[in-house]
Amino acid sequence: MPETRGRRIGRWLLALFYAVAGVAHFLFTDAMVRIVPAWVPWDAHEVVLTTGAAEMICAAALMTRKWRLAAGWALALYALCVWPANVKHAMIDLTWLGGSGAGLSAWYHVPRLLAQPLLIAWALWAVGAVRVERGVTAAGN
Fold it and tell me: Keywords in UniProt for this one (predicted)?
């Protein structure tokens, strides 16, 4: 399927988003280490650095014709896999989830958690892995 202008812009914005996020893993490593769930079987510091590198590699791959589809699928799966870390982060920060109340507020965490499926969809849409048809109902009318 040919790439539309909107999809190209979406792909570029996704690449920028993940490039910045990947760099953040190296700048704010200690903060990110504390939200890696305890059940992850690897060293949390290494996980944060490895996932930061993966985000930057996938961001670069989004810019290539050859690797963009694989990068989109990888980023969609990645967004699904890091969702538990986002949940843990909310549980650390929010008192109503048993946290300290000293971190970021619900105004940060609730939209972040709700946006995760949209981030997955964005990654798949931006590389053409899924198609969104306008004006089509469930019955196909």
Answer: Membrane, Transmembrane, Transmembrane helix
